[in-house]
Specification:
The protein has 414 residues and is an alpha/beta fold. The protein contains 16 helices and 15 strands. Among the domains are: 195 residues, 2-Layer Sandwich (BirA Bifunctional Protein, domain 2); 73 residues, no CATH class. Helix content is 39%, strand content 19%. The mean pLDDT is 91.
Amino acid sequence: MATTVTAPRGMRDHLPADKARREHVLGVIRGVYARHGFDEIETPVVEDAARLHSGLGGDNEKLAFAVMRRGLTTEDLRQADAPLDLADLGLRFDLTVPLARFYASHRAELPSVFRAVQIAPVWRAERPQKGRYRQFVQCDIDVLGEPGQLAEIELIRATTAALDALGIVGTSIRINDRRILLALLASWGVTEQSAADRALITVDKLDKIGAVGVAEELGTTLGLDPAATADTIRALESADWDSVRGADWLDAEAFADLERLRAALPGVDLRFDPTLVRGMGYYTGTIFEVAHPDFGYSLGGGGRYDGMIGRFLGQDVPAVGFSLGFERLVDLVSLPGSAESDAVVLVYDKDVDPVRLAALKAEALDTHHRVRLEKRTKNMKNLLAGLAEQGFGSFATVGTDTTSLDGVEFRPLA
């Protein structure tokens, strides 16, 4: 009986053409971030289970993959009160918690203001669906040690530059501040921290269940008047810089900070959105997301998380980060034509001497950045079409009498 062999559920293999596109996008992003003064680091794929479940990751902690301790016995299984009692490590669910631990470990070796790049896979036990995977790559930049708005300015500038370099135009940055959200909740009578945390989780569902759904859930969990809450939320959905200025519920200091940030970023489409929450529980100030009118999802996001590193270091360190949605960006970017035209294929007959083939390939490499050898097949049309999909631009045929590529014609694949 035939067995279907596939990648684990929610994870993917990447064929050569897809892998080439992914590497192109990664190369562009890395190049832009390096130009903007960010340094790339690397952290282990696993962290201590206690660190991953310390309350810093919000709902993502529930999605963390645990790694069971070595040498477990049946007695250990009997004595465990919960599955996590059997785990000492876990796969990272984001790159921010590992960065906080990294900074606490290496602070003495780092500059007072550290600009970090992390581009690596993370794992979450999501319910797999289109555009949502259990293993995916995150592209993060963070500024640690800078308490002022210079950090946000640098992050937004570098992020928009990366999007421009990838050819993604028409984006805007939705921006808000956690202090504004807490002031809004306080105006509804929600002031206790745990209640505010629950309320923010509900408000973060606005794009999925709408104003009425959010209001009904807040009524059920916190006793708020659904009709009045829904009216307020609907008004906030269409709010902008001018319409909220001076509102009695607004945190005036936080809003003034956002306006100063807006003035410092001419040319960036910065849009105030008082309903923007960002799901992670560790944000303390500015939060932002990349929006595009053609897509119903964000292309990236982040915010300020000044309290996280102090959990590991025993001393608070200002921190803010921005993450690009790499898996979504890859689907929007094609390999550049110049790279494709300089990738060539030598199609050879089966009787060509392998030593001569190697010499012809070496000759082609002197003038082309990428060269592939392919044996002639009966169905050349399918072979050439597949090579074009993999990013090759042209091909030449070599036979038993071909001793040099001088005068050999390279023909376009597409």
